[in-house]
Amino acid sequence: MKTIKAKIKLIEGGKKPFKATPNSACLDLYAREIIMVNHLLYKVKLGVAIEPQEGYRVALYPRSSISKTGWILANSIGIGDNDYRGEYLAYFTRIDKNKPFPYSVGDRVCQFELVPYNDIEIEYVVELSDTHRGNGGHGSSGK
Question: What is 6-116's CATH number?
């Protein structure tokens, strides 16, 4: 297993990210502050700023237990660029109008990992090569 380095700055009131087991793929992040934006959207300040080593970005994911709450991470996966140095945030949106917001300050609310990324060299063209799938859209590769 390759070790990837990151610097983490704790924001006042923030907690150190937590790895539940030695084999956990991600580290859990805690709610430092919770702000109700409206009845469908909550903003959660995570109490950390992260500086990944060169060539890596931060990926924020919901914890698997969120499936029981009636809420989802609003942007599904959050992407933190390598040069972002601010406090990480998570936005949650309600999918079940009968479920209250499931988290309190101090709770583990989401998780993160460091993911390698590549520079992309783009060539702009008039046409792309043909494939059997073509421009068939969603489901065009079959069931």
Answer: 2.70.40.10
Assign 71 to helix, strand or coil: strand
How many CB atoms are closer than 10 A to CB 42?
22
CA dihedral sign of residues 75, 77, 83, 87: positive
Closest CA to 108 of 53, 69, 57: 69
Query: Quick one: which of 33, 57, 69 has its CA closest to 112?
Result: 57
Q: Give the number of other CB atoms < 10 A from CB of residue 68.
A: 9
Q: Tell me: the pLDDT tens digits for 20-76?
A: 999 999 999 999 999 999 999 999 999 999 999 999 999 999 999 999 999 999 988
Q: Is 135 exposed, middle or buried (0-12, 13-18, 19+ CB in 10 A)?
A: exposed
Query: What's the pLDDT band for 108 if we cut at 50, 70, 90?
Result: very high
Tokens (6 digits) for 88: 């990480």
Structural domain boundaries in the chain: 6-116
SS3 79: strand
